[in-house]
Design a protein that fits this description.
This is Adenosylmethionine-8-amino-7-oxononanoate aminotransferase. It contains 14 helices and 16 strands. The chain is α/β, with parallel strands linked by helices. The chain folds into two domains: 138 residues, Alpha-Beta Complex (Aspartate Aminotransferase, domain 1); 274 residues, Type I PLP-dependent aspartate aminotransferase-like (Major domain) (Aspartate Aminotransferase, domain 2). A seven-stranded mixed sheet has the order 4-12-11-10-7-5-6, with helices on both faces. It has a four-stranded mixed sheet with strand order 1-2-3-15. Helix 4 crosses helix 11 and helix 13 crosses helix 14. The longest helix has 19 residues. The radius of gyration is 22 Å and the shape is globular. About 1% of the residues have low confidence. Bound molecules: pyridoxal-5'-phosphate (PLP).
Length: 467
């Protein structure tokens, strides 16, 4: 038995993996990783995989980045952790100062959680609690977009709409209001992204007009609905939404957990709409992909509604044990230094252009409905029928075939259902982008070769197989 197999057997004897039907591993090998370097992950038998999805969208400057490593080593000698209630430390103070500085004007307070879903819980609870502290107890519902994803904890699932993740738990979820997404994949033939996104705003306007008295906040994934299949829309929607939230007295929560830190082409997606949300939730690339942490930025107005004598019971008594962990903070500080020192956002423009040119030919593929891109995120949607955009039945798991082919070629491309996408670390080279495009083309050819199996029934269009 090879080393990979040995680790796999030990793993499968004791672990339960995330987002996985464990029975799949009776036929799909699990890949134990020994080390990482730059865009590469390497298994125990020396095979390398180009990490095209940044390990679930967290990595921005490569695995085992020497600059981030050094900061972590230095911090380890000083302080690994201290509770943040009643105590503080330089890394968390410096990181908070930096985040306030680089995010849109008006976001002046930072609250920490230790993963993205928990960050969403913080924003939802804070918004609800703000209105309560202001004497508006009736504002307790949240508005969300169809096909959105905000994490796996119960309130985060409640504001999500990817059936695969939420359907089972429906009886547990909060009562939210769902508005059709501005997703431009469904725009009428010949219509541009801006016009479609603007038109789709009518649904949001209607919802807010009818329900604003009972609504605490609208929550969106700005510009890209990630787990919903890398579906994209125009910034004009965010601008209209900001104006409407102001008009109706409703908070705007931007979940930039996936899209923050340059994924959309700007440091934060909200910059493209020129707006400041009431809550900005960051995680994933915040620490360069090193350690779990989330930051929730909000305004002084929100902060002041909680600031009072203890016995008024207006405080936000929410805590996560590892809040503001110093190691995560220095990883984040080192990441922000690299963004600044290497002028990364500007340099990424050339990489984004290269991603577009390397995959342009796929738009002509008979089973590709669309190749779409926003900044450093590029998605290729495989379909059964190109003209009608008829999706493949989810049970056929066409994306899984792309994933398996890519692994055999040395790439980690993990599609979302039938959507193959690139969301690479920013240290990828133009040659590596060409390699990914070749592998993706081969994988798509292979996965779309056979006709739809007649045995498949029970088609559920909003059921995304994670791969
Ligand atoms: C937009 C968005 N929000 C929230 C989350 C949840 O983050 P976490 O997995 O760290 O809980 C994710 C994770 O993919 C995400 O993409």
């Amino acid at each position: 038995m090879g080393l990979n197999d040995q680790w796999m057997q030990r793993d499968l004897a004791v672990l339960w993996h995330p987002c996985t039907q464990m029975k799949d591993h009776e036929r799909l090998p699990l890949i134990p990783i020994k080390r990482g370097e730059g865009v590469w992950l390497e298994d125990f038998e020396g095979k390398r995989y180009l990490d095209a999805v940044s390990s679930w969208w967290v990595n921005v400057f490569g695995h085992a980045n020497p600059r981030i490593n050094q900061r972590l080593k230095d911090q380890l000698e000083q302080l690994e952790h201290v509770m943040l209630a009643g105590f503080s430390h330089p890394p968390v103070i410096e990181l908070s100062e930096r985040l306030v500085q680089i995010t849109p004007a008006g976001l002046d307070r930072v609250f920490y959680a230790d993963n993205g879903s928990s960050g969403i819980e913080v924003a939802l609870k804070m918004s609800f609690h703000y209105w309560r502290n202001c004497g508006q107890d009736g504002k307790k519902r949240f508005v969300t977009l169809s096909n959105s994803y905000h994490g796996e904890t119960v309130a985060a699932m409640s504001v999500g709409d990817v059936a695969l993740f939420t359907e089972t738990y429906k009886p547990l979820l909060l009562d939210t209001l769902k508005v059709p997404s501005p997703d431009c994949y469904y725009r009428p033939e010949g219509m541009g992204w801006e016009e479609h996104s603007r038109n789709m705003f009518a649904h949001m306007e209607q919802c807010l007009a009818a329900h604003h008295r009972e609504v605490a906040a609208v929550i969106v994934e700005p510009l890209i609905q990630g787990a919903g299949g890398m579906r994209m829309y125009h910034p004009v929607y965010l601008k209209l939404l900001r104006e409407a939230c102001d008009r109706y007295g409703v908070h705007l929560i931007h979940d930039e957990i996936a899209v923050g830190f340059g994924r959309t082409g700007t440091m934060f997606a909200c910059e493209q709409a020129g707006i400041t949300p009431d809550f900005l939730v960051l995680s994933k690339a915040l620490t360069g992909g090193y350690l779990p942490m989330a930051a929730v930025l909000t305004t002084d107005t929100v902060y002041q509604a909680f600031y009072d004598d203890y016995d008024t019971l207006r405080a936000f008594l929410h805590s996560h044990t590892y809040t503001g962990n110093p190691l995560a903070c220095v990883a984040a500080l080192a990441t922000l230094d690299i963004f600044a020192e290497d002028n990364v956002i500007a340099a990424n423009q050339a990489l984004a252009t290269k991603m577009a040119s390397a995959t342009a030919h796929l738009a002509e593929h008979p089973h590709v409905a669309e190749v779409r891109q926003t900044g450093m995120a590029l998605a290729i949607e495989m379909v059964q029928d190109k003209a009608s955009k008829t999706a493949y039945p989810w049970q056929e798991r066409r994306g899984l075939q792309v994933f398996q082919h890519a692994l055999s070629r040395g790439a980690l491309l993990r599609p979302l259902g039938s959507v193959v996408y690139f969301l690479p670390p920013y240290v990828i080279t133009p040659e590596q982008i060409d390699f990914l495009a070749t592998v993706a083309t081969e994988g798509i050819d292979l996965a779309t070769r056979s006709a739809v199996s007649v045995a498949v029934s029970n088609f559920h269009p909003n059921h995304r197989d994670p791969g």
